[in-house]
Amino acid sequence: MTVAAPEPKENMGQPAPRLDGRAKVTGEARYASDFMVANPAFAYLVTSSIARGRIAGIDQSEALAVPGVLSVMTHENAEVPGEFTFFGAGGESSTALKPMSSDRVWHDGDIVAMVLAESYEAAREAAYKLKVTYKAESPTALMHSPGSEMRPGAAVNPRHQDVKIGDAEKAMAQAEVAIDAEYSTPTQHHNAIELFTTTCVWNGNELTVYEPSQFVIGMKFGLARQLKIEPNQVRVISPYIGGAFGSKGGVTQRTSLVAIAAKRLNRPVKLVVTRDQGFTTATYRAETKHHIRLGATREGKLTAYTHEAWELTSRADDYMVAGTENSAAMYAIPNIATKVYVVKADRNTPGFMRSPPEVPYMYALETAMDEMAVKLRMDPVEFRRLNDTQVNPVTGAPYTSRSLMQCYDEAARAFGWAKRQTEPGAMRDGDWLIGWGCATATYPTQLNPAAVRIRLTDQGQIRVQVAAHEVGTGAYTVIGQQAAEWLGQPLDKVHVDLGDSDLPPGPVAGGSVTTASVCSAVIQGCAVIQNKLFQRSGPTAMQNLTGGQLAEAFSRAGLSVIEEYAEWVPEGSRPGALKGLHSGQVGITGGPLKDKTMFAFGAEFLEVRIHARTREIRVPRIVGAFAAGRIMNTRTARSQLMGGMIWGISSALHEATEVDERTARYVNDNLADYLVPVNADIAEVEVILVPETDTKVNPAGVKGLGELGNVGTAAAISNAVYHATGRRIRDLPIRLENLLQV
Ligand code: MOS
Fold first, then answer.
1. Element (H or E) spanning 357, and its range?
2. For residues 211 and 270, what is the distance between their CA atoms, to the nearest angstrom?
3. Strands 288-296 and 111-117: what pairing?
4. How far is the CA of 246 from the centre of ligand 1 (A)?
5. Is there a single domain that holds both residue 494 and residue 606?
6. Does a structural domain hold residue 8?
7. Which domain holds residue 514?
8. Measuring from each residue's beta carbon to the nearest atom of ligand 1, which residues come in under 6 Å?
9. CA-CA-CA-CA torsion for 531, 532, 533, 536, nearest 10 degrees?
């Protein structure tokens, strides 16, 4: 065991190396655009240089003169009446906007044309030579810009409900201690290293799509609807994904365009979207604003919490993340009132980005919690302990398990929190102002129906197949481990197939559902196999079955291979969830349910050092302790949580997509100017896995932790910056210019 492969504690699986590790480091792993197709044409997008208005004209003459150019698709010819065409948003689309459907430009970087050529270079050159002229209108860039439209979230999105328990206004008026503050978080883009790509190949009426996708089944059905063809005519292949983080979950605008082009040219078409075009043709984390008030007794018992929030969205879509349903479940507060608004502007439609609601909403709440602790002159850990709860105050439903304070205690011990001097600025070390801060991490335990096919031979070879996804998290490995454990075989006898819509339908790789959902389906499938082999009635993990025992059981049963198909539907799913699984719908349930409350928790402690003269901000160390039910693999779990905390640091100190308010365009749409942390920015990261057993969440006992680690980190940073300087910075990211007045 090493730091990277921590010794499993109670209820934790072995730190098995990734089944796909070798393929990845040797370059054998095929990412979507690596698949070889015969005689491809290459596509290149042309995106708008204005954010609002109309296309006045498109002069194709110079573009068409480039050697190797085949054709140019624009709004003038994208649809041919009576021919195969793009019918607009279908399935789980990231936007209702249909590109090239009219001369209207909806946002900066809207797709206005697609050039097709014999080579990528020719397509790119022709794209640069296409002359698009516009009738530009003045765009609305930001929430406060003229022309923005504000709408109550509950009115535009029936799935969101504002929270109201007790009488928050009255409790605030009577509170002995109160805080009232506003926070904001910026626009951020996922910037996965693998670009957005699509390759479409037609074989007669059958379409094969190679695209990095977090939801191949959703894309299959969504594309079929967009193109008005039968779902069984579409196959989507995505075995490896080079980073997604939510950006590759929805059905995109580009895929149908590439499919149409391939049909018209009668040859495969390959599109790789450039880095800057990815900023506007895919989704992003929208900027948010928050107004929070907390009321408490002098002893530190919280009595009231109000949270109003505003989220930016596009003109065409009412996308929102609305994190208050989860933030309101965090602490024992009797009076809560929340309200979320969407604010529409001339921007592309935002979308999921790792822990979509929790990152901005918990940033605001956990900073407010620290402000309240300071005002109460209480230790922030003890303040949270005093207000800890084992029931969701909103619904009254108990947590199936909640180890938040165990996480605080373990992380505090490892960090050395007891040595903290309370007063801001008290811990100076020479030229460096030292600040220590902490915050709560949380993520709802969410589940989606899943189907699997499992095959076991009398030689102990196992094959598990499911249209789930490897987004870099270790899905192949943990799914394989679950099957190996339940069928009593070593992991090297397991082969796992993922990322192909021809496999049994699996969940979207979103909402941290994959491990819990697929492992639960695997357990169900393994139980059927055990039943056939050993006439067992209930499922049991069969550790270390010998080859002889297995062969004997097979021969007794008169079989040499058993292949089983199993479908698992989580408790509390809405009616029709299974049908939804088979028609490409997301069927996520979990988190704050009516009768039970399911969340994973963590506590993060970190040190910032701020240079007294330059105000340079450094984070020399961070410690996070996390409890997330059964940990399938301590190595992949640690990597996920470590990556999450690094992203949390990045989110607090580095990342922001700058929007030019005059033009509603992104300024730093490249990896040189969009700051992400490098090795020099990240020093010590310690992950502590806190044992937790939860038999109520799902058969696998897994809570999921893909989106747990980056929640709360930004608040821990802002709390530490306050402790170092006495200055409360409420708007992210925190940069040295915010601290010049200290
Ligand atoms: Mo994640 S943002 O649910 O892909």
1. none
2. 10
3. unpaired
4. 4
5. no
6. yes
7. 450-571
8. 214, 245-246, 249, 352-354, 356, 510-511, 707
9. 20
Here the tokens at position 577 are 């969830």
538: its two tokens: 């209930």
Which one of 213, 319, 354, 651 would you pick to mutate in the ligand 1 pocket, going by the greatest count of ligand atoms within 8 A of its CB? 354
Distance CA 450, CA 452 (A): 7
601 and 709 co-located in one domain: yes
**Same structural domain, 599 and 725:** yes
518, 538, 571 - which closes a domain: 571
333 and 304 Cβ atoms separated by less than 8 Å = yes
Is residue 88 over pLDDT 70?
no
Mutation choice for ligand 1 from 443, 445, 446, 707, CB with most ligand atoms inside 8 A: 707
For residues 740 and 390, give the distance between their C-alpha atoms in angstroms, rounded to a whole number.
Answer: 43
Does residue 347 fall inside a structural domain?
no
- Say yes or no: 410 and 549 in one domain: no
Q: What is the distance in A from the centroid of ligand 1 to the CA of 653? A: 22
Question: Does the annotation count 737 as an active-site position?
Answer: no
Q: Which residue from 110, 102, 106 is spatially nearest to 137, judged by alpha carbons?
A: 106
Candidate from 320, 352, 447 with most ligand 1 atoms within 8 A of CB, to mutate:
352
675-696 pLDDT per residue, tens: 999 999 999 999 999 999 999 9
- Please indicate, yes or no, if residue 81 is contained in any of the structural domains: no
Assess whether 430 and 460 both reside in one domain. Answer: no
Tell me how far the alpha carbon of residue 595 lies from the centroid of ligand 1, in angstroms: 25
Which of these is catalytic: 325, 485, 564, 707?
Answer: 707
Count the domains in the chain.
Answer: 2
Q: Are residues 632 and 565 in the same domain?
A: no
Alpha carbon of 322 to ligand 1 centroid (Å)? 15
648 and 543 within one domain: no
- CATH number for the domain including 603? 3.30.365.10
> Are 701 and 674 found together in one domain?
yes
From residue 349, alpha-carbon distances to 93, 286, 319, 708 in Å are 11, 9, 7, 25
Whether the model clears a pTM of 0.90, i.e. scores above it, the answer is: yes
Looking at the domain assignment, is residue 525 inside a domain? yes
What are 462's two structure tokens?
Answer: 């196992």
**Edge-to-edge strand list for the sheet holding 432-444:** 432-444, 599-611, 617-627, 684-689
pLDDT digits (tens, 9 = 90+) for 183-210: 999 999 999 999 999 999 999 999 999 9
